[in-house]
């Protein structure tokens, strides 16, 4: 009988196999390194995230435990959150700022410095007399105000019947000057309350529109913010009856400064977005008012608006079921300065006066 012996590989075959194995091993090591870098970047993004509520974590839990999603998860609580799992992944791979402008700046040197020159800023100085805050402006600021202000809109102030209620569900939302660069601050010189002060003063002093500006901190517990602000609105409705406009003034969280800034009479201004909730029982009227304000803003100050964002379900319907005059502003972003937000506030005072006093 013949004895069959295993065929031995030639030196060439062995060498080829070793190269293939080393290639596979090298590829695997490279892939593992890429994955580790990716998860390291994801970890840093989540660690440095300033957004409250942990939306990305919640989505991750929902994927892993569907039962929790069905029984505990409340989608309305995260209606205003931007840092979803999708956005975390885009940030981790560097695609979150993939815009035509950024591509041009990156690829064509000529465009890199366009728009990067130091912008002139408008500074607002405040001082207090008794309980009333009076705005003191420099000659440059008065010049800007004269270009925005329309004296023909001014009427006699009737303080006994307030027409506008301004409040802040997320009272501590801060601008770029917030102490330590924190996204939230109680410093009224660096948060939405400061922008609300300018809006309220402009409406009263320049247009004769009586305003209540409530500064209650509803953000003591972020998840309960709309519940707290709802109680505040109810308190004023009970005391004064309905208002012509009930404004919840926020600021957005968008990292792209260029996308959030425009020019008004040569001065930087924070762009503004309007928000509606379809689950409001007065959605039709809320939508009509928002569109009137949006269109008038575009007419008077082209480029100042971003869009009208409509949520299918807003947290507590963003309190918009309480009045036909309910409206929500997202005035600028955390990357805007308080001065830019105040310029926008003065513009919006003119817009609201056009609607209320014409």
Task: Walk me through the topology.
Layout: H1 11-47, H2 55-64, H3 66-71, H4 85-92, H5 100-107, E1 125-129, E2 132-136, H6 139-148, E3 164-167, H7 192-207, E4 211-213, H8 225-240, E5 245-252, E6 261-264, E7 267-270, E8 272-277, H9 283-300, E9 305-311, E10 326-333, H10 338-357
Parallel strand pairs: 3-4, 3-5, 5-10, 8-9
Antiparallel strand pairs: 1-2, 6-7, 8-10
Helix pairs in contact: 1-4, 7-10, 9-10
Please sum up the structure shown.
With 358 residues, the chain is an alpha/beta fold. It has helices spanning 11-47, 55-64, 66-71, 85-92, 100-107, 139-148, 192-207, 225-240, 283-300, 338-357, and strands at residues 125-129, 132-136, 164-167, 211-213, 245-252, 261-264, 267-270, 272-277, 305-311, 326-333. The radius of gyration is 27 Å and the shape is elongated.
Describe it.
InterPro entries: Spore_II_P (IPR010897). The chain crosses the membrane at residues 20-40. By secondary structure, this protein is an alpha/beta fold. It has 2 domains: 55-111, no CATH class; 125-357, 3-Layer(aba) Sandwich (Aminopeptidase). It is 42% helix and 15% strand. A 6-stranded mixed β-sheet has the order 4-3-5-10-8-9, sandwiched between helices. Strands 1-2 form a two-stranded antiparallel ribbon. The protein has a two-stranded antiparallel ribbon with strand order 6-7.
> CATH class of the largest domain, please?
Alpha Beta
Q: What gap, in angstroms, lies between the N and C termini?
A: 113 Å
Class computed from helices, strands and strand pairing: alpha/beta
According to CATH, what is the topology of the largest domain? Aminopeptidase
Radius of gyration: 27 Å
Transmembrane segments: 20-40
InterPro entries: Spore_II_P
Keywords: Membrane, Transmembrane, Transmembrane helix
Protein name: Stage II sporulation protein P
